[in-house]
Design brief:
The chain contains 3 helices and no strands. By secondary structure, the chain is mostly helical. It has one domain.
């Protein structure tokens, strides 16, 4: 499994679903569908998404630091 980071490529909003998909070895589309379906259930899904957006580091670029 890879590290849990928000990738620079493949983001739709913040890259949380893409990062989770990379971490658990599934496609980003599958993770997004799971998230949308989970929103139909009661719970703090949006708060967890926002927390992951803030807490997960963004993937480092392969180029030079500016």
């Amino acid at each position: 499994m890879s590290a849990l980071v928000r990738p620079r490529n493949g983001r739709m909003i913040a890259g949380v679903c893409a990062g989770l998909a990379d971490r658990f070895g599934t496609s980003a589309t599958t993770m997004r569908v799971i998230f949308v379906l989970s929103c139909l259930l009661p719970g703090p899904q949006f708060l967890v998404y926002l927390a992951l957006w803030v807490l997960l580091p963004s993937e480092k670029s392969a180029g030079y630091a500016v």
